Protein backbone atom coordinates (compact mmCIF):
# COMPACT_ATOMS: atom_id res chain seq x y z
CA UNK A 1 0.00 0.00 0.00
CA UNK A 2 1.39 3.43 -0.88
CA UNK A 3 1.33 5.85 2.05
CA UNK A 4 -1.15 8.72 1.98
CA UNK A 5 0.10 12.26 1.62
CA UNK A 6 -1.60 15.40 0.35
CA UNK A 7 -0.49 16.57 -3.10
CA UNK A 8 2.00 19.43 -2.88
CA UNK A 9 -0.08 21.61 -5.22
CA UNK A 10 -3.07 21.38 -2.87
CA UNK A 11 -0.91 22.12 0.17
CA UNK A 12 0.91 24.95 -1.59
CA UNK A 13 -2.04 27.32 -1.83
CA UNK A 14 -4.00 26.37 1.27
CA UNK A 15 -3.85 26.08 5.04
CA UNK A 16 -5.03 23.17 7.18
CA UNK A 17 -8.41 23.53 8.88
CA UNK A 18 -9.20 20.19 10.51
CA UNK A 19 -9.03 16.43 10.15
CA UNK A 20 -12.42 14.74 9.89
CA UNK A 21 -12.87 10.96 10.13
CA UNK A 22 -12.05 10.42 6.46
CA UNK A 23 -10.88 13.73 5.05
CA UNK A 24 -8.31 16.41 5.70
CA UNK A 25 -9.96 19.83 5.33
CA UNK A 26 -7.99 22.69 3.76
CA UNK A 27 -8.86 26.37 3.27
CA UNK A 28 -7.74 27.69 -0.12
CA UNK A 29 -5.77 30.96 0.08
CA UNK A 30 -8.05 32.88 -2.24
CA UNK A 31 -9.96 35.73 -0.65
CA UNK A 32 -12.34 35.83 -3.63
CA UNK A 33 -14.37 32.98 -2.14
CA UNK A 34 -14.50 31.04 1.14
CA UNK A 35 -13.26 27.77 -0.33
CA UNK A 36 -12.65 24.46 1.41
CA UNK A 37 -11.06 21.33 -0.04
CA UNK A 38 -11.70 17.88 1.42
CA UNK A 39 -8.98 15.30 0.77
CA UNK A 40 -9.96 11.74 1.75
CA UNK A 41 -6.95 10.19 3.48
CA UNK A 42 -6.70 7.20 1.15
CA UNK A 43 -3.64 6.73 -1.00
CA UNK A 44 -3.68 6.45 -4.77
CA UNK A 45 -7.29 7.45 -5.53
CA UNK A 46 -8.50 9.78 -8.27
CA UNK A 47 -12.28 9.43 -8.52
CA UNK A 48 -15.12 9.27 -5.98
CA UNK A 49 -15.93 5.76 -7.25
CA UNK A 50 -12.41 4.64 -6.32
CA UNK A 51 -13.52 4.93 -2.68
CA UNK A 52 -15.06 1.93 -0.93
CA UNK A 53 -18.83 2.27 -0.53
CA UNK A 54 -18.66 3.06 3.22
CA UNK A 55 -16.04 5.74 2.52
CA UNK A 56 -18.28 7.28 -0.13
CA UNK A 57 -21.08 7.55 2.40
CA UNK A 58 -18.67 9.11 4.91
CA UNK A 59 -17.42 11.54 2.26
CA UNK A 60 -20.99 12.68 1.60
CA UNK A 61 -21.50 13.22 5.35
CA UNK A 62 -18.29 15.26 5.50
CA UNK A 63 -19.33 17.33 2.46
CA UNK A 64 -22.51 18.14 4.39
CA UNK A 65 -20.54 18.97 7.56
CA UNK A 66 -18.17 21.25 5.65
CA UNK A 67 -21.09 22.88 3.83
CA UNK A 68 -22.93 23.61 7.08
CA UNK A 69 -19.78 25.00 8.69
CA UNK A 70 -19.17 27.32 5.74
CA UNK A 71 -22.77 28.48 5.62
CA UNK A 72 -22.71 29.21 9.36
CA UNK A 73 -19.48 31.22 9.07
CA UNK A 74 -19.69 33.31 5.89
CA UNK A 75 -22.24 34.83 3.54
CA UNK A 76 -23.38 32.16 1.09
CA UNK A 77 -26.04 32.35 -1.61
CA UNK A 78 -25.10 28.98 -3.15
CA UNK A 79 -22.71 26.16 -2.39
CA UNK A 80 -20.58 24.72 -5.17
CA UNK A 81 -19.48 21.13 -4.52
CA UNK A 82 -17.16 19.47 -7.04
CA UNK A 83 -14.70 16.65 -7.52
CA UNK A 84 -12.85 17.51 -10.74
CA UNK A 85 -9.18 16.54 -10.54
CA UNK A 86 -8.20 17.37 -14.11
CA UNK A 87 -5.16 19.31 -12.86
CA UNK A 88 -4.38 17.62 -9.52
CA UNK A 89 -5.33 13.98 -9.97
CA UNK A 90 -5.46 13.07 -6.26
CA UNK A 91 -9.09 12.70 -5.17
CA UNK A 92 -10.28 15.95 -3.57
CA UNK A 93 -13.62 17.72 -3.25
CA UNK A 94 -14.12 21.47 -3.48
CA UNK A 95 -16.79 23.04 -1.25
CA UNK A 96 -17.09 26.72 -2.11
CA UNK A 97 -19.40 29.38 -0.66
CA UNK A 98 -20.62 31.53 -3.54
CA UNK A 99 -22.33 34.90 -3.43
CA UNK A 100 -24.10 36.57 -6.31
CA UNK A 101 -21.57 39.43 -6.23
CA UNK A 102 -18.37 37.36 -6.03
CA UNK A 103 -15.54 37.69 -8.54
CA UNK A 104 -16.58 34.83 -10.83
CA UNK A 105 -20.38 34.69 -10.34
CA UNK A 106 -22.25 32.98 -11.98
CA UNK A 107 -19.36 31.09 -13.53
CA UNK A 108 -17.55 28.31 -11.67
CA UNK A 109 -14.49 29.45 -9.68
CA UNK A 110 -11.80 27.51 -11.53
CA UNK A 111 -9.52 29.51 -13.80
CA UNK A 112 -11.78 32.55 -14.01
CA UNK A 113 -10.00 35.21 -11.95
CA UNK A 114 -6.58 35.16 -10.32
CA UNK A 115 -6.46 34.24 -6.64
CA UNK A 116 -6.72 37.25 -4.32
CA UNK A 117 -4.53 37.41 -1.21
CA UNK A 118 -6.20 37.46 2.18
CA UNK A 119 -5.16 40.36 4.44
CA UNK A 120 -2.48 39.25 6.96
CA UNK A 121 -3.99 36.83 9.48
CA UNK A 122 -7.43 36.74 7.84
CA UNK A 123 -7.14 33.27 6.34
CA UNK A 124 -5.92 31.86 9.68
CA UNK A 125 -8.81 33.57 11.50
CA UNK A 126 -11.36 32.20 9.02
CA UNK A 127 -9.85 28.71 9.26
CA UNK A 128 -10.11 28.88 13.06
CA UNK A 129 -13.77 29.91 12.91
CA UNK A 130 -14.61 27.11 10.51
CA UNK A 131 -12.62 24.59 12.57
CA UNK A 132 -14.77 25.38 15.64
CA UNK A 133 -17.85 24.39 13.64
CA UNK A 134 -16.29 21.23 12.20
CA UNK A 135 -14.98 19.48 15.30
CA UNK B 1 -45.57 20.88 -0.68
CA UNK B 2 -44.68 22.15 -4.14
CA UNK B 3 -44.75 19.45 -6.82
CA UNK B 4 -41.46 18.26 -8.30
CA UNK B 5 -40.68 19.05 -11.91
CA UNK B 6 -37.39 19.30 -13.77
CA UNK B 7 -36.28 22.83 -14.63
CA UNK B 8 -37.04 23.68 -18.27
CA UNK B 9 -33.42 24.75 -18.89
CA UNK B 10 -32.15 21.30 -17.88
CA UNK B 11 -34.79 19.55 -20.01
CA UNK B 12 -34.19 21.88 -22.96
CA UNK B 13 -30.68 20.66 -23.78
CA UNK B 14 -30.87 17.03 -22.69
CA UNK B 15 -32.72 13.77 -23.19
CA UNK B 16 -34.03 11.41 -20.50
CA UNK B 17 -31.91 8.33 -19.71
CA UNK B 18 -33.50 6.65 -16.70
CA UNK B 19 -35.20 7.15 -13.36
CA UNK B 20 -33.18 5.89 -10.40
CA UNK B 21 -34.66 5.60 -6.90
CA UNK B 22 -34.01 9.25 -6.09
CA UNK B 23 -32.84 10.94 -9.27
CA UNK B 24 -33.90 11.44 -12.85
CA UNK B 25 -30.89 10.92 -15.12
CA UNK B 26 -30.48 13.11 -18.19
CA UNK B 27 -27.91 13.05 -21.02
CA UNK B 28 -26.76 16.52 -22.04
CA UNK B 29 -26.91 17.14 -25.81
CA UNK B 30 -23.26 18.12 -26.14
CA UNK B 31 -21.13 15.73 -28.16
CA UNK B 32 -17.96 17.29 -26.71
CA UNK B 33 -18.30 15.14 -23.59
CA UNK B 34 -20.45 12.22 -22.43
CA UNK B 35 -22.31 14.20 -19.77
CA UNK B 36 -25.02 13.03 -17.39
CA UNK B 37 -27.09 15.14 -15.01
CA UNK B 38 -28.79 13.66 -11.94
CA UNK B 39 -31.81 15.56 -10.68
CA UNK B 40 -33.09 14.36 -7.28
CA UNK B 41 -36.88 14.22 -7.48
CA UNK B 42 -37.46 16.50 -4.49
CA UNK B 43 -39.18 19.83 -4.96
CA UNK B 44 -37.69 23.17 -3.99
CA UNK B 45 -34.09 22.16 -3.23
CA UNK B 46 -30.93 24.00 -4.31
CA UNK B 47 -28.01 22.49 -2.36
CA UNK B 48 -26.95 18.96 -1.49
CA UNK B 49 -27.37 19.82 2.19
CA UNK B 50 -31.02 20.63 1.55
CA UNK B 51 -31.55 16.86 1.09
CA UNK B 52 -32.43 14.70 4.08
CA UNK B 53 -29.49 12.63 5.28
CA UNK B 54 -30.83 9.34 3.83
CA UNK B 55 -31.37 11.07 0.47
CA UNK B 56 -27.80 12.37 0.53
CA UNK B 57 -26.54 8.82 0.99
CA UNK B 58 -28.77 7.65 -1.87
CA UNK B 59 -27.54 10.50 -4.07
CA UNK B 60 -23.94 9.42 -3.46
CA UNK B 61 -24.85 5.83 -4.41
CA UNK B 62 -26.51 7.10 -7.60
CA UNK B 63 -23.47 9.27 -8.44
CA UNK B 64 -21.42 6.07 -8.19
CA UNK B 65 -23.90 4.13 -10.34
CA UNK B 66 -23.93 6.85 -13.00
CA UNK B 67 -20.14 7.07 -12.91
CA UNK B 68 -19.71 3.32 -13.37
CA UNK B 69 -22.22 3.28 -16.22
CA UNK B 70 -20.42 6.12 -17.99
CA UNK B 71 -17.01 4.54 -17.52
CA UNK B 72 -18.28 1.22 -18.86
CA UNK B 73 -19.78 2.88 -21.95
CA UNK B 74 -17.34 5.55 -23.12
CA UNK B 75 -13.66 6.43 -22.99
CA UNK B 76 -12.97 8.16 -19.69
CA UNK B 77 -9.66 9.35 -18.23
CA UNK B 78 -11.28 11.26 -15.36
CA UNK B 79 -14.75 11.77 -13.99
CA UNK B 80 -15.92 15.25 -13.08
CA UNK B 81 -18.70 15.29 -10.49
CA UNK B 82 -20.21 18.63 -9.52
CA UNK B 83 -23.23 20.29 -7.95
CA UNK B 84 -22.95 23.96 -8.90
CA UNK B 85 -26.35 25.49 -9.58
CA UNK B 86 -25.26 29.08 -10.10
CA UNK B 87 -27.27 29.29 -13.33
CA UNK B 88 -30.06 26.74 -12.76
CA UNK B 89 -30.78 26.82 -9.05
CA UNK B 90 -32.64 23.49 -8.87
CA UNK B 91 -30.43 20.85 -7.22
CA UNK B 92 -28.68 18.81 -9.90
CA UNK B 93 -25.39 16.95 -10.13
CA UNK B 94 -23.18 16.81 -13.23
CA UNK B 95 -21.32 13.55 -13.91
CA UNK B 96 -19.03 14.06 -16.90
CA UNK B 97 -16.61 11.63 -18.56
CA UNK B 98 -13.48 13.57 -19.43
CA UNK B 99 -10.64 12.59 -21.73
CA UNK B 100 -7.28 14.29 -21.94
CA UNK B 101 -7.99 15.29 -25.55
CA UNK B 102 -11.52 16.64 -25.09
CA UNK B 103 -12.54 20.14 -26.13
CA UNK B 104 -12.07 21.80 -22.73
CA UNK B 105 -9.40 19.64 -21.09
CA UNK B 106 -7.99 20.27 -18.50
CA UNK B 107 -10.47 23.04 -17.75
CA UNK B 108 -13.95 22.31 -16.36
CA UNK B 109 -16.66 21.90 -19.01
CA UNK B 110 -18.88 24.83 -18.09
CA UNK B 111 -18.80 27.83 -20.39
CA UNK B 112 -15.55 26.89 -22.12
CA UNK B 113 -16.61 25.78 -25.60
CA UNK B 114 -19.99 25.89 -27.29
CA UNK B 115 -22.06 22.70 -27.21
CA UNK B 116 -21.46 20.43 -30.20
CA UNK B 117 -24.39 18.66 -31.84
CA UNK B 118 -24.50 14.88 -31.80
CA UNK B 119 -24.92 13.24 -35.24
CA UNK B 120 -28.59 12.27 -35.82
CA UNK B 121 -29.57 9.42 -33.49
CA UNK B 122 -26.24 9.29 -31.68
CA UNK B 123 -27.40 10.88 -28.44
CA UNK B 124 -30.39 8.53 -28.33
CA UNK B 125 -28.12 5.53 -28.95
CA UNK B 126 -25.70 6.60 -26.20
CA UNK B 127 -28.58 7.19 -23.78
CA UNK B 128 -29.89 3.69 -24.53
CA UNK B 129 -26.47 2.12 -23.88
CA UNK B 130 -26.08 3.97 -20.58
CA UNK B 131 -29.66 3.10 -19.58
CA UNK B 132 -28.90 -0.62 -19.93
CA UNK B 133 -26.10 -0.22 -17.38
CA UNK B 134 -28.18 1.86 -14.97
CA UNK B 135 -31.30 -0.23 -14.56
Question: Strands, helices and their partners?
Answer:
The structure is a homodimer of 135-residue chains.
Chain A: H1 8-12, E1 14-19, E2 23-28, E3 35-40, H2 53-73, E4 78-83, E5 93-98, H3 122-134
Antiparallel strand pairs in A: 1-2, 2-3, 3-5, 4-5
Class by helix and strand content of chain A? alpha+beta
H-E string of chain A: HEEEHEEH
The whole-angstrom Rg of chain A is 14 Å
Largest sheet of chain A: 5 strands, antiparallel
Q: Count every beta strand of chain A, where a strand is a DSSP E run of 2 or more residues.
A: 5
Helix content of chain A: 25-40%
Helical run tally of chain A: 3
Amino- and carboxy-terminal Cα gap of chain A:
29 Å
Query: Which strands sit side by side, in order, in the main sheet of chain A?
Result: 1-2-3-5-4
The largest chain-to-chain contact, stated as pair and per-chain residue counts, equals: A-B, 33 and 33 residues
What is the typical, i.e. mean, pLDDT of chain A?
A: 97
Q: What is the multimeric organization of the chains shown?
A: homodimer
Give the DSSP E fraction of chain A (strand runs of 2 or more residues): 15-25%
